[in-house]
Amino acid sequence: MSSTGDQGSAAKAAKPVKAGVSELESMLSESPSSDRVCLKLAQILGVRRSEVALLRLDKGSLRFVFPPELRSAGVLPLTGTAVAARTAATRTPLLSNTFMRVKHVSLFEAVKLGAEQEDRSQEQMPIQKIMSVPVVSSGGNVMGVVQVSRKGLDASLAGADFTNDDLKRLEQAAEILSRMPLMQEGAEI
């Protein structure tokens, strides 16, 4: 029986989560676009499209696969201090609900994203909360990084804190992503 208390936006966002990761897995046979995969990931985790980033290892650096606006923004060296680079280099997931307090590269936050109508109010807001997970092949090689964030003027306006369950869902999604053609080095983006 489902609980019927205060069901704010977090509860509404949680409904598609239960079937979400399996829905992502069912997309494997379709060789979906990065846009479609990341939109599904946003739905699974209850974030906006502009709060999902997918990076792929390409010639020793991380290159954005999604959002498309960042594909030409350059690469992140694995030796750099960016969260994605640290995630790939250490193979360690990160969950931070106090991300704005952490010194980080905010260059990519300033890029204007061609977001959907619902995203426009949040698209250039600073990242307040973040989860970052390595995408690792079945052979144990890092293929890239998937990140999900919550943006807002401050943490209280960015939405609910990420939970360990959210991080587990993102780790499950990363395993599925590792089997998608779009994550193969040299694959067309």
Compact summary:
By secondary structure, the chain is α+β, with helices and mostly antiparallel strands. The protein has a single domain, classed as GAF domain (Beta-Lactamase, 2-Layer Sandwich), CATH 3.30.450.40. The protein is 26% helix and 21% strand.
Features:
single chain, 189 residues, six-stranded antiparallel β-sheet, alpha+beta, Beta-Lactamase
Structure overview:
26% of the residues lie in helices and 21% in strands. Mean pLDDT is 82; it is low at 1-18, 106-113 and 115-122. With 189 residues, it is of the alpha+beta class. The chain has one domain (18-183): GAF domain (Beta-Lactamase, 2-Layer Sandwich), CATH 3.30.450. A six-stranded antiparallel β-sheet has the order 3-2-1-6-5-4, sandwiched between helices.
CATH 2nd-level architecture: 2-Layer Sandwich
Q: Secondary-structure element order, as H and E?
A: HHHEEEHEEEH
Termini gap: 43 Å
Give the CA-based shape. Answer: globular
**Contiguous uncertain segments of 5+ residues:** 1-18, 106-113, 115-122
Determine the fraction of residues in helical runs and give it as a percent range.
25-40%
Total of DSSP H or I helical runs spanning 4+ residues: 5
Strand content: 15-25%
Question: Tally of extended strands?
Answer: 6
Radius of gyration: 16 Å
Task: Output the CATH topology.
Answer: Beta-Lactamase
**For the residues shown, what is the average pLDDT?**
82
| Count of domains | 1
Structural class: alpha+beta
User: CATH superfamily, called what?
Assistant: GAF domain
Order of strands side by side in the largest beta sheet? 3-2-1-6-5-4
Please write the CATH class name: Alpha Beta
Biggest pleated-sheet summary? 6 strands, antiparallel
